[in-house]
Design a protein that fits this description.
Blueprint (H helix, E strand, L loop, with lengths): L2 H32 L4 H26 L3 H26 L2 E2 L2 H21 L4 E2 L1 H24 L3 H13 L2 H37 L3 H13 L1 H12 L3 H26 L2 E2 L2 H23 L3 E2 L1 H18 L1
Antiparallel strand pairs: 1-4, 2-3
Helix pairs in contact: 1-2, 1-7, 2-3, 2-5, 2-7, 2-9, 2-10, 3-8, 3-9, 3-10, 3-11, 3-12, 4-10, 4-11, 5-10, 7-8, 9-10
Length: 318
């Protein structure tokens, strides 16, 4: 495979993942709207899971191909990128206002999930029992978040959702939504195949390990939907969706992706990921709490500090 073919494969894979994620998110959010879920819970669950599907597709394919370092590196690198790069860039676009539930409920669950991942990976292996535990925890968290959101809808949320449901011809809308979801899944599968093939070849050309490629190029590439969703939400004045998307994506990356991948194929964890990268993942998540809690906002200066932390991490990695 020549360099140009490799780069084309990588770019094509990223494009297909972006298109697939967009189609899937549109369909899923529309269905969630008809189920009368609030914008906050849509950001925390539907959008977060939808934007994490590129990571799921790539990690599943990489694990099936015996590329465990890419599969695990993609999850850990995406979580670092989500907090340090995406929250940082989003705050530079517009300072992020933080709701109290993000500090009291969403962040503690995210941090606990990441810390449990660090503990379970210390033996260098994620087995099927641990993967099953991750999936059960994800189901419990999602159910609780939906329950809280359904009981906590404001009058404005109720009016907005009622108006939107009334404007739709439900039967026709459902058919379109299902079509978008199916199209998104197909594009994600094809895009993952191209991206993994291109990433592995680049690693061979550049003399980099698959761990480094998974933590950087693959992780950043599959996190582009989260970046786009968070920046657009911030520009539209919806910081609850922007921040909830990042927190929800990190939860899904660990509990959902490692849960599914570990059930399909128990995963060996690179000792360097255990000794270094997992600590970066937990550390960046920990630093996010005081940034959120001080003044209940993430300022532009704090966003710049997060970006500097991400640049430092990549520099040390390379």
């Amino acid at each position: 495979m020549t360099v140009w073919i490799t780069l084309t494969s990588l770019a094509g894979g990223l494009a297909l993942l972006a298109l697939g994620g967009e189609a899937l998110i549109r369909g899923a959010v529309s269905v969630a709207r008809q189920a009368r879920l609030s914008p906050a819970v849509i950001g925390l669950t539907i959008v977060a899971m939808g934007t994490s599907l590129p990571e799921l597709s790539v990690s599943l394919l990489a694990a099936a191909d015996g590329r465990g370092d890419i599969a695990m590196g993609n999850v850990v690198g995406s979580n670092i990128f989500n907090v340090a790069a995406i929250v940082g860039l989003t705050a530079l676009v517009r300072p992020i206002q933080v709701h109290l539930t993000a500090v009291k409920l969403e962040w503690p669950f995210m941090f606990t999930a990441l810390f449990v991942c660090l503990l379970l990976a210390r033996d260098g292996f994620i087995d099927r029992l641990e993967a099953g535990f991750f999936l059960v925890a994800l189901l419990l968290f999602t159910g609780y978040a939906v329950r809280v959101a359904r009981t906590g809808l404001t009058a404005s949320d109720e009016a907005e959702l009622a108006d939107e449901v009334q404007r739709r011809a439900i039967a026709q809308r459902v058919a379109v939504d299902v079509g978008l979801i199916v199209l998104g899944l197909v594009l994600l599968a094809v895009g993952a195949r191209f991206l993994v093939a291109g990433a592995v070849t680049i690693a061979q050309f550049a003399g980099l390990s698959e761990r480094v490629i998974g933590l950087t190029i693959v992780a950043a590439g599959t996190s582009l939907p989260e970046l786009a969703a968070s920046v657009v939400a911030a520009r539209r004045g919806q910081p609850d969706i922007a921040l909830a998307n990042v927190i929800g994506s990190n939860v899904f990356n660990v509990l959902g992706i490692l849960g599914v991948v570990g059930l399909v194929e128990p995963q060996a964890v690179n000792p360097q990921i255990v000794a270094s990268d997992n600590w970066w993942m937990v550390g960046t998540a920990f630093v996010l709490l005081p940034l959120m809690a001080t003044g209940m906002r993430v300022s532009r200066l704090e966003g710049l500090a997060l970006l500097a932390a991400y640049v430092t991490y990549v520099a040390l990695l390379l």
